[in-house]
Amino acid sequence: MPLYVVSDLHLGEGTLASMFRDSEQGLRFAELCGGIARNPDSELVLLGDIFDVTAACPPRKGLTQFGVSLDVPLEDKPARPLAAILRSIRENNPLAMDALEALAGEARVTLVPGNHDRHLGEQGGREALDSIGLSKVQIEVQAARRVMDKWVVLQHGHSWDPSNATATGGGETMTAILHHAVVPFIRHLTPRTNVHIDADRLVTLRPEERVVPVLERWLKQGVFERFIDAFLELLVENGYMSRAASWLATPSIIRSRLKMDDDLWERAGQTALAALEGHKSLPGKPPPPDVLVLGHTHVIDWGVAEGRPGVQRLYVNLGTWSARASDAAGPADPTMPLLRVEADQRQLRAELFDVSNRWRVLQRFEVNR
Questions:
Q1: Which of 48, 128, 136, 294 would staple 82 via disulfide (CB 3.0–4.6 Å)?
Q2: pLDDT tens for residues 156-172?
């Protein structure tokens, strides 16, 4: 049974800044679903952050005052029901969503919720997914599959990231403020001569806090300082940081925080390899993995743990299908990673492809029974 895995698509609403474009990533995803459907014994695992629900949820308070401080017409607004958010996401991504619904009618499709769509693993999540035609998509907190005599364990990976491990860790607050305050502010600005400002680029930045040095490049002096004051106030109002911490949060201190967050993919990889070697336990107590697959960091990673002679175990991080950027002006990474795991009677094979580039093979792993 071939196992296909993708992560971090970030399908979103049309009214927000876009991380997933239906005419680009959606087209490729539809082609992928169509190919998998031709082999009904296959399974597609959607490894978290498939739907960007958190981006659709505004911050609890402070939007009105943020708008007043920066002369932007904003006002506080309540969160909408989960089913309404998913309906809006479906309407904005018809190619991807129609293909996913069709595939779920032909082959097994499993969703492992991430931090951006954790709501689907909570009360009401099943009903909300059913309401948009995905009643045949299974929901699992984590997935463990026996392939040959090996265990493949699939988790989103946010449980190891303190900012995103829980709804109150701060990550959701930053996402809400970015989409509902910072992006509208940028779109409201008068275009600046000789500086190209792209609001959609802000939501492709990882870590999300990189918005601060990027805006320092885009905004005029004076405007940037006003923005920082209003931005920090909004973070304080919504519990992201304390009032005392905001007084110390100069751009240079924020940049030092970014360096720590930038290393998330390395810390995730070190922890994953330690788990494969038996030195760390995995959240949820799955079977000891021979192949451990994560997402969340938006950085593709591939590591092989060497055990006793002749024994190798694999760690894969699937990065993201949303274009990834880390600066103000350089090209965004358009890679669309896909993992395929399959086996015959003698050998397990795992291959990492770039779907955006004619299924170019990025990495390959083979291990005998």
A1: 128
A2: 999 989 889 999 998 99
